[in-house]
Every structure is written in structure tokens, then in C-alpha cells.
Design goal:
The structure is a single chain. This protein is of the alpha+beta class. 32% of the residues lie in helices and 8% in strands. It has a 3-stranded antiparallel β-sheet with strand order 1-2-3, with helices on one face. The chain is elongated.
Length: 163
């Protein structure tokens, strides 16, 4: 009586294929999780830059408010002593772009002044909705570079005068 040969080989090949498939799926999930973490970090860092620009603008001396002319004007080592009487540090550190892992940011200008930053990444964001009101323009953006962290002061409109 002959025993069937090759059956063990087929079972082993099936198990190798199954383990490979599970490994690929686990790696995809890990990459997606890392990308989501970097995206969340971009939102945090972008808002830190936006808040630093706001701080620089709102703490301008006198009645004329100004934006920084360079992004490194917000750096922790720049103490704003030339502009104000009391040292202010608007940003704890110059952050790297978490998506591109670069120190280089895209800058949004109004004239010669920096009013915002954005990532130079052309990747499509995972997050499409559910942004805070100040970032509502990020909804359904096609790339991370469309996420513009801009500070523009709210114009105060005086109430109409009563007759």
C-alpha cells in the first residue's frame, strides 16, 4: 500500500501563503496608523505655527500690528527684544514638517510678511472632515499642501448706529 506523497508540501505552501497574506495586511495597517499619527502631528504643529503668528501679530507694540517677515522670527532664540520691551518667545521650537520630515515649510505671504505655513507634501490626506471651525477650509482637501495654517485677525465691525 502506497502512502500519498506531497500532501504535506501542499499544506505547508498553503500555510506560507496564509502567513504572508496576514503579514502584508498587518504591515498595511501599521503604515496607515503611522500616517494617521503624522497627520495628527501636522495638525498640532501647524496650529502651533498659526498660534505663534497670532501671538507675534497681537503682541506688536503700538497700534500698528505686524506679521513676522520670516518664520524664524518666531523661534525660541529670538526674544523679540527689538520690537517689544519685554522678551516674548512665540514658538517653543522650529518644528519639522511631520509628513515630509523636513525643516522646510511652505509659507503664505501677505506682502513681505508671513501669515501662515503649510506642508510641502503632495500626498492625499486621510482625514477629510471633522476639523475645528478655524480649520474648516481643510475639508475634502486634495493634498496636505492645501492645509494652510493661516492667521488672519477677525475684523471687528461696529454695530450700526441707532437713529
Amino acid at each position: 500500500m502506497r502512502r500519498p506523497q506531497g500532501f504535506s508540501y501542499v499544506v505547508v505552501m498553503f500555510l506560507v501563503a496564509l502567513v504572508s497574506l496576514v503579514s502584508v495586511r498587518a504591515m498595511e495597517n501599521t503604515q496607515m496608523t503611522l500616517r494617521r499619527e503624522k497627520e495628527a502631528e501636522l495638525l498640532m504643529v501647524g496650529q502651533a505655527y498659526r498660534n505663534a503668528i497670532r501671538s507675534y501679530y497681537e503682541n506688536s507694540p503700538g497700534s500698528t500690528k505686524t506679521y513676522p517677515q520670516r518664520i524664524d522670527g518666531l523661534a525660541p532664540l529670538v526674544n523679540d527684544a527689538g520690537r517689544t520691551t519685554r522678551p516674548q518667545r512665540h514658538l517653543r521650537q522650529l518644528w519639522r514638517d511631520p509628513i515630509t520630515d523636513s525643516k522646510e515649510w511652505g509659507l503664505v505671504y501677505a506682502g513681505d510678511n508671513v501669515i501662515g505655513v503649510y506642508s510641502l507634501s503632495t500626498l492625499e490626506p486621510i482625514k477629510k472632515d471633522g476639523f475645528p471651525p478655524e480649520l474648516a477650509s481643510f475639508k475634502n482637501a486634495k493634498t496636505y499642501s492645501a492645509w494652510r495654517f493661516i492667521y488672519q485677525p477677525v475684523a471687528v465691525v461696529p454695530p450700526p448706529k441707532s437713529p
